[in-house]
Amino acid sequence: MIFRDVSRRLAAPVVESSSEEFCPVTVSSVVQSLVLVDDCIEQRGGVSAFFHLLSGQLDDKLLTSPESPFFCPVFDSPNLHSSLAHWPCLRKLSLASSTPWVLHGLRWDTLKAMMSLPQLEEFSLHGLTFSPILATDATPEELEVPSLDHLTSFRYEAPSFRVSSWGTRESYPFPSEETMLRRVLEKLHLSVERLTLSSEAAPIDAMAQWEWPRLRELTLTGERWAEPRTPLLSLFSSMPYLRKLALDLSVVRGYLADPPPLWPCGHRAAFPWPDLTHLSLSNPHAEDEVFAHLPPALQSLSLCCCPHKSEKLLLDGIATIPHRYKYLVLDSSGMLGILSRCRTPRLAHLKIEYNAGDREHDLLEHLTAAFPRLTSLQIHRYRNVGNAGPQNPPVTTSDRTIDDVDFQAVESFGKSLALLASLRTFNAYLDYEDTPRPKFDRPRVRGFQYSSQDIDRFTATLHKAADVLARAMGPSVESVQLWRPRELEGYEWLAFRVVRASGPAGVEARCEEDWRVSSR
Q: How far is CA 274 from the centre of its chain?
């Protein structure tokens, strides 16, 4: 169906005269998924207004501060709300910000109207704050949360204003945001099947007390909390039917020691999620007992640092990044210890991140033997250079060239994975010697840029590395995707299609980026 999925950018409220222009009835009658992107000009004023409040020692009055620019007028339109009520097939509604890092949100009555649409099954709020301020004259009836039994999916991901360098850790989450989000989840916990939350605003204590009889997927992003200290295994034990658990949490330097394991040594309990098929656990702990109890039917496992250690040079240099993170990357011996305890022969997708060490060959050898059904594999691997460690990644310099890259090591790495007979897609960050470094002396958009010459040289390295890997790995591999830095997004995966010919051409990796350009 042509108009099943629709995306619209809104710079001004929808008025009655423009309702048909916003979306013709012939289209709205068949739309199933709608993404509304906030293009409001007031978005950028929220952060500066927030600091004005803090400087005036008005933390306790944040609930009653002026509404502008904390609220988005674009989504407040009654015409928008009434229009959406007449979209009979609408099942998924997503509201998002067009601008990164803004303090701009939705009023409670707007959120209430949107979430209450009876035909809706999925609601998502991304980049916008959930009810940052409550009206001073709001009545208990107006703050009441309606029945939300019709929602099976709820997603709330917003930028955190608990910023170390700004001194705002005690000012976020906002009391109204925390209160109303908790009330909504209290209505949802018996019916929701998929839940994604920013950890800073999530009511973890309350969530641990509620029953979640229908929850199948839980994703938490953001900062790893220091309190409560209850093992995560116990916190989420009231979610017995989970199939996917993603704890993609970062560790902030100076505010939390190394995060405890999901299942501490000596903790007596039964594994609470027997149906689990997908587990993503950032900053894995080498002594975590959970790996010895994973169900044999597990299909996907991710054990990476959050953010990736490959992003450290970039994130440490940008003044607007909220925190300085810890990069708790295990060495190859530690990762081997974890994977050796996993009895998951059906595993099809694996992501790991480690510092190379003496047991790297053993790690890769075990990986191929223990998980023969892998169809996709992503590896972030860091060279063992000098005293490199979790806090000290190998330093690369822009004067390195492709001639400095050890392609024999790349070939050896590929051959170590050649026995994975079902592998189709391989993604890798292999810490090449000529990896570009961001330059912060020429401010641009986010205060950094990469030298185009460095990127071009590095891209040539990736082309050669992809060829080497394609020839070294098994015949089942169809795609090799290699990490490349990118200015606005941080990084991207440069994709190569593995082409196998019977003639003298043999095996080669063709860059999909080059193929798209040449086919225009």
A: 25
